[in-house]
Design a protein that fits this description.
This protein is of the alpha+beta class. It has helices at 27-32, 45-57, 112-120, 142-145, 149-162, 173-176, 193-203, and strands at residues 8-14, 17-23, 34-35, 62-68, 71-79, 95-103, 130-135, 166-168, 182-187. It is built from 7 helices and 9 strands, in the order E-E-H-E-H-E-E-E-H-E-H-H-E-H-E-H. Strands 1, 2, 3, 4, 5, 6, 7, 8 and 9 form a 9-stranded mixed sheet that branches. InterPro entries: AcuA, Acyl_CoA_acyltransferase, GNAT_dom. It comes from Aeribacillus pallidus. This is Acetoin dehydrogenase.
Length: 210
């Protein structure tokens, strides 16, 4: 499968100034931008910056960023699922995962996350993919936002809906371990029925085990 990537950009006016949302960003350009020190949800900011550059080098890897001037203040990643997760077991070339989305606290509430997803889906190549994201409440910044688990879940769902992702049922043990966890999916317009059936089998691998 050929992984085409077509660049798109959008300008957003926020109370904290103009933000450019753009991507997919090539690795060299990504490495040249400053990476805000508050982007620490997954690992220390310098290490996360490096990790994003590595993802951008992958054939299927996509990084969409939000930046103020030359400083990245938010991002979203798309790549193949982790080999240790069930979603990689089908070895589907047209299944990619929204692996991480993060926005610095200063810009939360400015619809940056929503616009990162909107710009991500502007690329017509996304119609060739099944895009998944697995939401686990233990990754959520409940303390920083002051939201409870259900309020946060509602916020995440609304944001994912902006990118066309919808809630899908699954018997994945980690997702089923807490009712706030969820699987969200966007099936592109050009995805064939065979791929959809294969994906359904991944969603319910325990269906026939008694």
């Amino acid at each position: 499968m050929e992984h085409k990537k077509t660049y798109h950009a959008k300008e957003i006016e926020t109370p904290n100034g103009t933000v450019i949302v753009e991507g997919p960003i090539p690795p060299d350009k990504l490495a040249g931008y400053k990476f805000h020190e508050d982007l620490t949800a997954f690992r220390p900011a310098p290490r996360q910056h490096k990790a994003l550059v590595e993802i951008a080098k992958l054939p299927e890897g996509r990084i969409i960023i939000a930046r103020k001037g030359e400083t990245i203040i938010g991002y979203v990643t798309f790549l193949y699922p982790d080999p240790l997760e069930r979603w990689s077991e089908g070895k589907m070339e047209n299944l990619i995962e929204l692996g991480a989305i993060e926005v610095i606290p200063e810009f939360r509430g400015c619809e940056i996350g929503k616009n990162l997803l909107i710009v991500s889906m502007m690329d017509d190549a996304m119609e060739d993919y099944i895009i998944i994201t697995t939401e686990y409440y233990w990754h959520w910044d409940l303390k920083g936002t002051g939201l409870n688990v259900w309020e946060y879940r509602k916020m995440m769902e609304k944001m994912m809906n902006a990118g066309g992702l919808e809630w899908y049922a699954t018997d994945d043990p980690e997702i089923c371990s807490h009712p706030a966890n969820c699987l969200m999916v966007r099936i592109g317009k050009r995805v064939d029925n065979e791929s959809i059936q294969k994906f359904d089998q991944l969603r319910f691998t325990n269906r026939f085990l008694y």
